[in-house]
Structures are given as structure tokens and as C-alpha cells.
Amino acid sequence: MLRALHSAATGMDAQQTYIDVTSNNLANVNTTGYKKVRANFQDLIYQIQQTPGTSTNAVNESPSGIQVGLGVRTASTQKEFSVGTFKPTGNELDVSIQGEGFFQVVEPNSGLIHFTRDGAFHLDENGQMVSAEGFLLDPNITIPPEAVSVTIGQDGTVTARLSAQADPIQVGQIQTVNFVNPAGLIAVGGNRFAQSGSSGPPLVGVPGQNGFGTLQGGFLETSNVRVVEEMINLITAQRAFEFNSKAVQAADGMLRTLGQIN
Known about the structure:
Layout: H1 2-27, E1 37-43, E2 46-50, E3 66-69, E4 72-79, E5 86-88, E6 95-98, E7 103-106, E8 113-116, E9 122-123, E10 129-130, E11 136-138, E12 147-152, E13 157-162, E14 169-173, E15 176-178, E16 186-189, E17 192-194, E18 203-205, E19 214-217, E20 219-221, H2 227-259
Antiparallel strand pairs: 1-4, 2-3, 5-20, 6-19, 7-8, 7-11, 8-17, 9-10, 12-13, 13-14, 15-18, 16-17
Helix pairs in contact: 1-2
């Protein structure tokens, strides 16, 4: 019974993690460029009371043995980088990545490069393209103050039409990066990720070339969270939590019965 109590407790803890992850997905259903998280679980070690293949008599062997598990644990939480849907914004500086890739922005305090799928860019007081948090786009792109319109091409080319010129001029090139293992990136908040040893180094490329996704100006990528799917996950986790709590109650009842034996 003590083993049953422990196993059920690990199950309740695992389902609590599942609910936490699912709740965070639902909370970010309207977050630009958000990528949903999936919780992965593993069973714990087993107490082997009889090894499979053990001889039961002179001529027979145990076909399966006796192996009793000790519960479950959360193995990992994994970002799923499937592409979300795209919505038009009417803002000429908004840009989405249609396919694989990340934008690079510079964290102002440390100078480190962070990576994001959030293409809601604006201009700062110096005319430089910055993220919603004010982080500079890398490579840096500055829009001339006399520009009357800005266009972002599918290959990342940024052109501006100046009030005194008929033909637009190129003012910069947006580069995107990719990783061998995007799931290994560290989520740091603010729609940003940091490189880790598991993700590998960033691979810089030109949008639309060598497997990198193309860019679409005037659009933003929405979250890839599917509300119906997450609600089903939430119900499943809640029911699994209840079943494990029932196992705790059953084991407690058995211990109570044993305690009443004279």
C-alpha cells in the first residue's frame, strides 16, 4: 500500500505539471509568435520481484516475471515550432516568417543576441527598427526620417521611398537564423529565446534560401495554440489527477483496514 501511495503521488504531481503547461498555452493563445509547449513523461524504475525467463520448475520458465512500477516523472517540456496562422495588420514594419527561422534582436543590458518569431517591429527615436520591447533588430536597419513608406520583401530586403525621390532605395537586409535543434532553445520570456548547448549555434541565412522561410511584410504570425486541443488536454489531465487521488484513497482505506485488525 505504501508503494501505491507513492506511485499515485507521482502521478498527481505529473498531472499538475501537465495542467500548468496547458494553462500557459491557453494563456498565450493570442500572443504573437508564441509556440505551444508539450509535457513529456516517463515511467520510473521498477521493482523486479521475478525476472522474466526465471525457471519456475525443472522444465518451465516465467514468461513475463513480476515487475511493479514506482510511478511517473516529467521527463521534459518541449516547444513545438509548427507555424501559426498569419493575420494582416496594415503596419508596414510588421513582418512574419512563413516557414523556418527566427529574427535576431540584441538584449540591451548584456548585448547578447536573442531569437524571436515575433515580427512586430517599430522605429525608435533614431529611426532604427526595434522589437516591441525596444530591442534592436540585428543586423541593425535604420529608416531615413524623410521616408514616406517602407516595404519588406520576401527575401528580407527593406526598401524605403523618400519624399524627394521617385525610386525607392534599399536601406537594409533582414537576416534570419535557424538551429539544428530549435526545441533546445531556452525560453527567456518576452517572445524571445536564447541559445543553449542543446540547440546548437545559430545558422544565419537569407529568407527564402537554403530552407529558410520567406518573409511577408504587413503580417504577424499568431500563436500555434489550438484552443480545442488544449481544452481536451486540460480535461484529460484533470481526470487523470482525480484517478490518482482515488488510488491514494483506496490505498489509505486498505491501510486503515489493516490497522483495525486485532
